[in-house]
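Now for today's protein:

——
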Amino acid sequence: MSAEPGTVRPGGRTARVRTAVLRAAGDVLAEQGFDRLDLAEVARRAEVGKTTVYRRWGTVTALVADLLADMAEQSLPRTRTGAVRDDLRANALLVQRTLADPRQGALFRAVIAAAACDPRTAEALRHFYAVRIAEWAPCVSEGVARGELPVGTDPATVVRAVSAPLYYGLLTTGTAPDPAAAERAADAAVAAAQAGVYAAPVTPVTPT
């Protein structure tokens, strides 16, 4: 069974071609948006043959999916400070720096806009965030184990609660969050978690 275009992880020269093409695709997305992303233009910027790009990825959506997969793979590992509040502040500040970066912030806005109308881009974006949430969720699990958060707290929901206000602010105001906003988002998520907002309800035991 042949692999879907853009899903093979080769080495050598082919890996260098992939790196150059994904970099060029990210540049076009950041500068012009999803609707202006063109495989021929990406090939020109990457200085590779159009045939190579069309044969390897085939469609714009396949290229964006591979770009998001690569971004997930290249993302920084989670921070481990020994305290859940500090861990989640580190997560929030990482998101904040990404969204404040001129290229990365524009790239994410373009991909999020594309995901609203393109199913494959939406799936690739969900996969990207699933990878990142899985990377940071152990911060919450470890916080539960240390007694900082209630038993039953859902790690993935807490991690989403940290970054959600930052993305919302970017998309609704067009302005990237600052570090203070990132710390507030983390502190609010921790406070809610400590209050049991993200903990599964305990089922009472009925005496027999």
The CA atoms of residues 34 and 114 lie 6 Å apart. The two ends are 56 Å apart (CA to CA). Residues 1-9 have pLDDT under 50 and may be disordered.
